């Protein structure tokens, strides 16, 4: 059903006015999904156009796209997309930033603790002394990553655990906003055996102090890079400070496509949004900015890899992970972050006169506005 943009707007205005507890009927759901498909087709068409303008765009076995030196493509991402996936190691439930793009925006003070002396791995709680048992009993992953929320709030707790996984030969990377990093704790973390450090540069607004911390980190770690949701603020500030950032010698920049949940969605209401494969909801501009930045990096031959960590990439990641877990054909954990679809959030893109559907056709009988749709 190639619903027209006009009809799509009419129906979504109706869906947005329904009580929150009222579910759509089957034909109404068919209309809603047709609208999401039309928006997504238009977004994908624009992405293909932007990608085609990148002279040396590369693909990692059709899992993702990037530009730059193959050797600098982050090993943590290879583990995620080609290996046995990434096991998330969780410890710290606090953060020293308050980013509007954060999945926990507005709820940072209510994040539950993992537990005194405990680490969460694969949804299970472990004491440090349990790690030998874990490594002996289960197959080692190709990589692990330290997440949730800001590790450098208590980084000294991480050193012995990092050393344990290093001795087991597992590639490890960590995410940080870099605000609490300094020469001493960076050196100690590297000495413990962390392989790859990723700075969320957007969390600090590309602060000069964090940029210098990236330069310092590059003295100690085999791989250092940036991983931040791509926003207009990051795009503009990065380009203003580009020369200084590139001079740090970092290896890669992962441009994550910003996706929204119930916490951060209110910060982006009024923006043009789309839904990818009935799963992640993202601003239309996020991946567009990534592809534009990749073109600049390619044309200027930046000395680092720039990676398109898009919703498509995350879809491939989840397929790969389930395959290595022995899941059935087609199984994936990729899905929507919302219990109820926020139809009202998609009204701006349907009202935008500059956003056009690729192809339109009249609605069939029974689906037209005014019809009784069951």
Features:
13 strands; 12 helices; single chain; TIM Barrel; 374 residues; 2 domains; 11-stranded mixed β-sheet; alpha/beta
Beta content comes to 5-15%
- The number of domains: 2
- Characterize the largest beta sheet: strand count, sense, and whether it forms a barrel: 11 strands, mixed
The tally of helices reads 12
CATH superfamily of the largest domain: Aldolase class I
Rg from Cα = 22 Å
Span between N and C termini? 17 Å
SSE ordering: HHEEHEEEHEHEHEHEHHEEEHEHH
CATH A-level architecture of the largest domain: Alpha-Beta Barrel
How helical, in percent, are the residues? 25-40%
Strand order of the largest sheet: 1-2-13-10-9-8-7-6-3-4-5
What is the name of the CATH class of the largest domain? Answer: Alpha Beta
How many beta strands in the DSSP annotation? 13
The coarse overall form would be globular
* Poorly predicted ranges: none
CATH domain fold name of the largest domain: TIM Barrel
Q: What is the SS-derived class? A: alpha/beta
Mean of pLDDT: 96
Explain this structure to me?
This protein is α/β, with parallel strands linked by helices. It has two domains: 85 residues, no CATH class; 283 residues, Alpha-Beta Barrel (TIM Barrel), CATH 3.20.20.70. An eleven-stranded mixed β-sheet has the order 1-2-13-10-9-8-7-6-3-4-5, sandwiched between helices. Strands 11-12 form a two-stranded antiparallel sheet. It is globular, with a radius of gyration of 22 Å. It starts with a helix and ends in a 23-residue tail after the last helix. The model has no long low-confidence stretch (mean pLDDT 96).
């Amino acid at each position: 059903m190639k619903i027209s943009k006009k009809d799509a707007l009419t129906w979504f205005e109706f869906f947005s006015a329904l009580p929150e507890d009222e579910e759509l009927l089957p034909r109404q759901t068919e209309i809603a999904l047709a609208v999401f498909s039309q928006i997504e087709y238009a977004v994908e068409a624009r992405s293909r156009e932007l990608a085609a303008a990148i002279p040396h765009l590369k693909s990692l076995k059709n899992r993702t796209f990037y530009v730059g030196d193959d050797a600098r493509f982050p090993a943590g991402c290879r583990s995620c997309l080609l290996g046995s996936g990434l096991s998330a190691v969780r410890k710290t439930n606090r953060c020293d930033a308050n980013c509007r793009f954060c999945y926990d925006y507005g709820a940072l003070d209510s994040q539950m603790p993992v537990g005194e002396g405990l680490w969460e791995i694969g949804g299970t709680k472990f004491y440090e002394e349990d790690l030998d048992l874990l490594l002996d009993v289960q197959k080692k992953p190709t990589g692990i990553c330290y997440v949730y929320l800001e590790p450098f709030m208590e980084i000294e707790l991480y050193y012995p655990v990092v050393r344990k996984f290093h001795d087991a030969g597992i590639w490890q990377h960590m995410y940080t906003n870099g605000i609490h990093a300094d020469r001493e704790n960076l050196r100690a973390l590297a000495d413990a055996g962390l392989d790859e450090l990723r700075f969320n540069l957007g969390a600090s607004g590309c602060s000069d102090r964090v940029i210098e911390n990236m330069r310092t980190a590059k003295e100690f770690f085999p791989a250092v890079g940036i991983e931040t949701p791509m926003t207009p603020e990051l795009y503009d500030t990065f380009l203003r400070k580009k020369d200084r950032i590139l001079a740090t010698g970092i290896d890669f920049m992962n441009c994550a496509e910003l996706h929204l949940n119930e916490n951060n969605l209110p910060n982006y209401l009024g923006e043009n949004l789309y839904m990818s494969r009935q799963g992640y909801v993202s601003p239309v501009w996020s991946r567009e900015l990534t592809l534009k930045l990749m073109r600049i990096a390619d044309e200027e031959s930046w000395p680092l890899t720039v990676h398109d960590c898009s919703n498509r990439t995350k879809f491939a990641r989840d397929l790969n992970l389930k395959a290595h877990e022995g899941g059935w054909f087609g199984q994936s954990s990729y899905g929507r972050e919302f219990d109820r679809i926020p139809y009202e959030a998609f009204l701006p893109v349907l009202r935008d006169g500059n956003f056009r559907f690729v192809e339109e056709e009249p609605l069939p009988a029974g689906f037209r506005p005014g019809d009784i749709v069951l």
